[in-house]
Design goal:
The protein is an alpha+beta fold. About 40% of the residues lie in helices and about 15% in strands. Pathway: Amino-acid biosynthesis; L-asparagine biosynthesis; L-asparagine from L-aspartate (L-Gln route): step 1/1.
């Protein structure tokens, strides 16, 4: 796993390119501490930081084959099979790296190669003859690629902080996008919350020449090959086991040891079990234990670690450790979040690196593809209730939502909760039903913003923009399939895989791999009947059933507990903000950045003077973390952290292409 940067500018001198590249690369050392490289030529320049995982001795980047030069972040796990296919075509290889396979595949098949890749990647390829830059990203957006525009220059980077090194470029919130992010937990399409910065969409390719962006297309969309699974439930179970095992085996391809995260839930337990099945060697597992027992799952983590005989490591987390490390967490995430949950993962990644492990497997994305979130239950309950909206009995199914939230089981709260859900009965069949509930939960953010910014985007406008981006056959899917698509396009791709995945693990030079995001597995799961994935209100039914007897029953049978960490409790003591919370939510800092309404923030914080954090609900937890992380993201935009300045002498690879003549197009 690595960091990549690039420049397109037909007027910029090569010496200037080199100077800018060195500055950008200097911010990405955590993504790739094992090597540096750069390529400069008239019109385009590329930079790279390397985290060596496969072929440790060769495969340094930028990597050049004849007319093509590439910088590449990620892994293509089926590179062994693709290499064999190319060797049969008499194509030579000089390294053992997947990097060479990726570039030779592109040289032979062109952009069709991306359909062959099974992996997670973002890359930039410069065609020296055509004078074109090709940018591409993996199907689910696991690895990031941002694009910034400044005058005649276009810049590319794995992380936003690299743009902070460019003279005259300042990261500033685009407030409409900022509000959209607050209500949806992500921005729609290729937008970001910053002015003049966008992201390359997952599963897409863009081509640039001296005219700028000249071609853009989507090579993958979830469900594009959808057809209903034609076989029995028992056959589906067997196929699921085979596909998951194959996915784990592919993601064990590495020249360094691979560890596994154990959360205490079924998803990571299955990955750990399959890792043990695929490898005969003892491996390391890593977990988070919370001093606050409301969030602690260490009993289940230790039970699973004992069963598989792993070398188990635990990172102990308390309120103070979250408070102390939240600012540095936001430095790496680079935008607002809604939970303090990334910080324990940031500390866990440190422990992984201290154990000399560079790669970890995680259980991310099982909830999206097997209907594991409680939002899927919300949709199903509302659909059932909507058939008889006057029923006195059907609303009581609400009590089976969110088993980890005590007030859902409190009979005194039932009337209020029922009234809340009743307003969604009329729209339950709508394409955006699940997102509609999330946006209504989060609309409190709109009231918190400084009115001077004029950010006033409505739920209706967000829904309209989201609906315009849906695939043509979206209307033919079930409501639960539609919700899966929306969760994967918003919450998973733009939020979880960033704030709890790529950005957090690579802050410590650790590569996360996600077996549940194997595209063949995802498409298989999408094809299954809804009843296979959710039987009644039993979520991830086929996943649990397929591994029953292989995973401890205590884990198989436990209700879904979403990964969370203490939010308000981590920033309040005795009714007062302390530490980083007190600093960044002070009246002075609220006024300094001007994002939030000062009176609103003051009223909001006053709510907690006479109340303990234990009494605080979902929205207040979410709003406090959102405001705090937004303030911290402003701080890092204004105070970029540069660890050191790279030099040409420190490069492992330096390619200077001074020619400006066009060559024949043939390879």
């Amino acid at each position: 796993m690595c960091g990549i940067v690039g420049i397109i500018d037909w007027q910029m001198p090569m010496d200037t390119q080199k100077e800018i590249l060195l500055g950008m690369v200097s911010t990405l050392g955590h993504r790739g501490p094992d090597g540096r490289g750069l390529f400069v030529s008239p019109g385009a320049a590329l930079g790279h930081t390397r985290l060596s995982i496969i072929d440790l001795k060769s495969g340094a980047q930028p990597f050049q084959i004849d007319r093509f030069v590439m910088v590449y972040n990620g892994e293509v796990y089926n590179y062994v099979e693709i290499r064999k296919e190319l060797e049969k075509l008499n194509i030579p290889f000089y390294t053992k790296s997947d990097t060479e396979v990726v570039l030779r595949a592109f040289a032979y098949w062109g952009t069709d190669c991306f359909n062959k890749f099974n992996g997670q990647f973002a890359l930039l390829i410069w065609d020296r003859y055509k004078r074109e830059l090709i940018a591409a990203r993996d199907r689910f957006g696991v690895r990031p690629l941002y694009i910034a525009k400044q005058k005649s220059s276009i810049y590319f980077s794995s992380e936003l902080k690299a743009f902070d090194t460019i003279a005259g470029f300042n990261r500033t919130y685009e407030m409409q996008n900022f509000l959209e992010h607050g209500m949806l937990w992500n921005t729609i399409g290729d937008k970001t919350i910053y002015q003049d910065i966008r992201t390359l969409a997952a599963g897409s390719v863009e081509v640039y020449n001296m005219s700028g962006l000249v071609k853009r297309y989507q090579y993958y969309t979830l469900g594009q090959t959808y057809s209903r699974y034609p076989y029995s439930y028992e056959q589906a179970k067997e196929e699921l086991q085979d596909k998951l095992l194959n996915s784990v085996k592919l993601r064990l391809r590495s020249d360094v040891p691979v560890g596994v995260y154990l959360s205490g839930g079924i998803d990571s337990a299955i990955i750990a079990h399959l890792n043990g099945k695929a490898s005969s060697q003892t491996f390391d597992t890593f977990s988070i234990a919370f001093s606050d027992k409301q969030f602690d799952e260490s009993i289940f983590q230790n039970e699973m670690a004992t069963q598989i005989g792993s070398k188990h490591h635990t990172e102990n987390i308390n309120y103070d450790s979250i408070n102390r490390n939240f600012l540095n967490t936001i430095y790496h995430i680079e935008r607002p979040v809604f939970r303090s949950a990334p910080t324990p993962l940031y500390l866990l990644a440190k422990k992984v690196r201290e154990a000399n492990i560079k790669v970890v497997l995680t259980g991310e994305a099982a909830d999206e593809i097997f209907f594991g979130y409680d939002s899927f239950k919300e949709i199903k309950i509302l659909q059932f209730w909507a058939k008889q909206p006057s029923s006195k009995f059907r609303p009581h199914l609400i009590k089976r939502l969110y088993p980890h939230l005590q007030h859902y089981a409190d009979s005194k709260q039932f009337g209020f909760i029922k009234m809340y859900y009743e307003k969604f009965l009329g729209s339950v069949g709508h394409k955006l039903a699940g997102l509609n509930i999330r946006m209504h939960n989060n609309k409190v953010i709109r009231a918190s913003l400084n009115k001077d910014f004029g950010a006033s985007i409505s739920i209706e406008k967000i829904a309209e923009d989201m609906e315009a981006s849906l695939p043509n056959d979206f209307g033919g899917w079930t409501n639960l399939q539609q919700h899966q698509y929306l969760e994967m396009k918003t919450l998973l791709s733009g939020y979880l895989l960033s704030s709890q995945g790529d950005r957090i693990s690579l802050s410590q030079s650790v590569e996360g791999r996600y077996p549940f995001l194997d595209h063949e597995l995802v498409e298989f799961a999408f094809s299954l009947p809804d009843s296979f994935k959710m039987r009644g209100l039993s979520q991830k039914h086929i996943l649990r059933d397929s591994f029953n007897g292989l995973i401890p029953k205590s884990i198989i049978n436990r209700p879904k507990l979403p990964y969370q960490a203490p939010d308000l409790k981590s920033f309040f003591k005795n009714g007062k903000l302390y530490g980083s919370g007190a600093e960044f939510l002070s009246s002075h800092m609220i006024a300094k950045y001007g994002v939030f309404d000062q009176n609103y923030v003051k009223r909001f914080l006053n709510k907690f003077k006479d109340r303990t954090p234990e009494q605080i609900g979902y929205r207040d937890n979410m709003l406090l973390v959102f405001m705090l992380s937004s303030q911290m993201a402003c701080f890092w935009s204004e105070n970029p952290k540069f660890n050191h300045q790279e030099t040409v002498e420190g490069m492992d690879v330096e390619i200077n292409d001074y020619t400006n003549e066009l060559r024949p197009v043939s390879v």
